Amino acid sequence: MTETRDERFIDHIFVEMCDRLNEAGLPVSRGTLHFRILHPQWLGARILWLKGMKEAEIQTFDYGVEDTAQYRNSPINELNSGASGMIRQRLEAASGDAPPYPLYDDLRAEGHTDYIAWQLKHTLGKHHIITFSSDRPGGFSDGDIAFLADLLPAFALVSEIRLKNRLARTLLETYVGPHASEQILAGATTRGSGVTVGAAILICDLRDFTGISDMWPRDDVIELLNGYFDAMAEPIERHGGEILKFMGDGLLAIFPLGNTNACRDLLAAIREAQTAMAALNEENLKKGHEALGYGIGVHVGDVMYGNIGSRSRLDFTVIGPTVNIASRLESLTKEIGRPVLLSRAFVEMAGCETKLENLGSHLLRGLSEPIDVFAF
Questions:
Q1: 230-271 tens-digit pLDDT
Q2: Is the Cα dihedral 293, 266, 271, 39 positive or negative?
């Protein structure tokens, strides 16, 4: 417990623990940890160690894995379903003594002779699973099992701390994005704290969402929104942008200028998003729905990036004239009838003026001077 203070990752701790168990004379040839995790894509994860491995293998499991035959017919399911105490299976059983789970056949084929599994109990009734296998003839002795059982409370404490840290990071990344989450975890939690950064700003909004939400069934509206956000968000994140917030049927994303290719990356993200939206609309038309329209406004400049809000509820976001202009350009797409509008400042920084159409100067709401607007 004391020597793990400087190690953040539980898989590293687990590997060293298994190595030390062998050095102490326990015949551990395989170990696994099975965690449930709060993640938008994955239900859980397995950490696998085999004797001789310097790094553990980490595998994630999608939602729905609990409905598969592989999971249902496993000792992990038995423990998760409420089995108390230890599950043990000697794998050197006679051929007529068939093991109850296919996993045991796999372990025997790999040369393991014994298998044990426990619930790894965390606070407030939460539990995960830890397993060990042996390859020594005869498997684990009673003393080996007692030794491992004595380690479980300490390892449960160490693992819970790391898992909670990882869950906190995952939840922040899910709801505020990777860069903002790093800032918050580093201590940027004071109202008004922030920095001025140069960034290309992208604001996107879905057209006629009010009418759609009034007329469509709720589940269809949610499915539509998720498909639309997938089409828009995945290219943005793939090209280094960060989505700071989803606003109903809109989103706000930044491409920090610390990346010298930020403007070109933003353009590439828009083109890929347009392709994805075209594919999504084909599917919508096949289902009898109308094609979805959208508007995107793009500008570049300095923004204040930090915490805004009340004393007890903060939002990590960007504000400033740059964001306002991007928002006004998005609104202008409705009047002009072009889905993507970009400011001259952005176009000049991106060096793409010859590839775009100059739509002339337009006076945006709240600005005293018109700005030149471009479209694909």
A1: 999 999 999 999 998 888 889 999 999 999 999 999 999 999
A2: negative
Per-residue pLDDT tens over the stretch 87-127: 999 998 655 555 589 999 999 999 999 999 999 999 988 99
CA distances from 329 to 8, 229, 340, 369 (A): 44, 20, 9, 14
pTM of the model: 0.72
SS3 251: strand
Please answer whether residues 197 and 305 qualify as being in contact, where contact means their C-beta atoms are separated by less than 8 angstroms.
Answer: yes
Structure tokens at 60: 């994630």
Tokens of 298: 């793009």
Once rounded to an integer, what is the mean pLDDT over residues 284-306?
89
128-138 mean pLDDT: 96
Number of alpha carbons in the 13 Å side-chain half-sphere of residue 374: 20
Identify the CA nearest to 266 among candidates 253, 284, 281, 280.
253
Pinpoint the alpha helices (H) of the chain: 10-23, 69-72, 75-80, 102-109, 142-176, 178-185, 209-215, 218-238, 262-286, 321-336, 344-350
